[in-house]
Amino acid sequence: MTNVVELSTGSRVVVTGGNGFIGGHLVKRLVERGDRVIVFDGTPPARPVGGGRVRYVQGDIRDAAATAAVITDDVDVVYHLAAVVGVDQYLARPLDVIDVNVIGTRNVLEAAHRAGAKLILASTSEVFGKNPAVPWREDDDRVLGSTSSTRWVYSSTKSVTEHLTFAFVRQLGLDATIVRFFNAYGPGQRPAYIVSRSVHRALNGESMVVYDEGTQTRCFTYVEDAVEGTILAATHPAARGEAFNIGSMLETTVGEVVGLIAELTGARTEVIDVDTDKKLVSYEDLPRRIPDTTKARELLGWECSTSLRDGLAATIAWARENDWWLQQPDSGAA
Ligand SMILES: NC(=O)c1ccc[n+]([C@@H]2O[C@H](COP(=O)([O-])OP(=O)(O)OC[C@H]3O[C@@H](n4cnc5c(N)ncnc54)[C@H](O)[C@@H]3O)[C@@H](O)[C@H]2O)c1
Fold first, then answer.
1. pLDDT digits over 84-126, tens only?
2. CA triplet 237, 243, 249: central angle to 5 degrees?
3. Which fold has domain 12-183+223-246?
4. 3-class DSSP state for residue 211?
5. CATH, range 185-218+250-291+305-327
6. Rounded to the nearest 5°, which phi and psi values hold at 38?
7. Which atom of ligand 1 lies at the shortest distance from residue 82's CA?
8. Contact present, 264 and 202 (Cβ < 8 Å)
């Protein structure tokens, strides 16, 4: 028996990981469209959103009973974003990555299935690993390195979350959709990623850092575009049982993005180049990471609409107004 959930505005929604970077933007948009939102997250919000219209429940998705207590029969949709995110985190806490992704996601899927809710799984471009044949279509191969390298634990376990989700869809009839994000950036992101960390450093008068001369390329995706793709995935009937690449197709070198941040912030500090062969022995960087987003465009009518310049300008303007964020320590890997 399949369970297709019709979603209109005014839905009852649970967002796991709703206090995180993408989750916070998603919750804000869901409230704006009239949904009733419960955030289930292991940490409290840095800044609550939704003006009192969001219920915050602190808890761990590894705890099946606590998860089921939030994802109850009256819930229409679960956006599952909770995960251990960031290279610094998954190199330091591989066991947590495995438990949160595998055990936690299984708990969320079970609860959504029992509640008859639709589920959206937040996955990642990392599932494609180091497949050199870019751009990647949704069904392209995964090419991963050795299990002796902790670097692959995030990719491997996120792939398991996708297998789990497809299994719930195909074996148990769950209504679910997978969205794979590609280098999302924007206001409020922890200063541990190339854009957020560079903005943080530039505005604090510190040198920005690139690895291996900044020649790697990425497709930087403004968070509001990613959120729009995520809500479409939850509401569009064509999305059921499918996976979608949600990312910009504009390939940009890390050096170029850092140069643009320097221009937009007016930073006068130098850019430090780190040779990862000498410093980050356990990390295997990818030379190129590019999505093919034809499927999201054709089935959902979605594509990125924010230019890199506009997205960076909005991120920098937000950072200038949020001193608490600028005061946080940056947590890059070098
Ligand atoms: N930011 C990106 O560019 C990007 C790219 C690809 C995929 N993703 C995926 O999108 C999702 C959101 O990422 P983000 O950038 O907002 O990360 P984030 O770290 O800002 O947010 C993750 C949230 O999950 C919560 N969480 C972690 N473990 C938990 C647990 N055991 N129980 C309950 N809550 C827990 C954290 O407290 C945090 O608030 C993740 O699933 C991530 O894998 C993000």
1. 999 999 999 999 999 999 999 999 999 999 999 999 999 999 9
2. 105
3. Rossmann fold (3.40.50)
4. strand
5. 3.90.25.10
6. -115, 130
7. 24
8. no
Q: Is the pLDDT of residue 78 over 50?
A: yes
SS3 257: helix
Q: Residue 67's CB: how many other CB atoms inside 10 A?
A: 25
Q: How far apart are CA 38 and CA 57, in angstroms?
A: 7
Residue 288 near ligand 1, beta carbon < 6 Å: no
| Residues 40-52 pLDDT 10s | 999 999 889 888 8
Predicted confidence (pLDDT) per residue in 139-149, tens digit: 999 999 999 99
Rounded to 5 degrees, φ, ψ at 218 are -140, 165
Is 90 in the active site?
Answer: no
- Ligand 1: distance of its center to the CA of 80 in Å? 9
In the chain, the amino acid numbered 328 is: Q
Tokens linked to 151: 């670097």
- Residue 17, sorted as left (phi over 0), alpha (psi -120 to 50) or beta, turns out to be left
Give the confidence band of 278 by pLDDT, cuts at 50, 70, 90: confident
Contact 87, 283 (CB under 8 A): yes
| Position in ligand 1 atom list of the atom nearest CA 18 | 39
Q: Domain coordinates of the chain in residue numbers?
A: 12-183+223-246, 185-218+250-291+305-327
Q: Which helix (H) or strand (E) holds 274?
A: strand 271-274
The C-alpha angle with vertex 67 and arms to 111 and 53, in degrees rounded to 5, equals 105
Tell me which residue has its CA closest to atom 5 in ligand 1: 181
Distance CA 182, CA 131 (A): 15
Instruction: Write the DSSP symbol of residue 135.
Output: S
Does the structure show a pLDDT above 50 at 334?
no
Taking the model in full, what pTM does it have? 0.96
pLDDT for the residue numbered 279:
67
What is the distance in A from the centroid of ligand 1 to the CA of 183?
A: 13
Q: Which of 90, 154, 193, 222 is catalytic?
A: 154
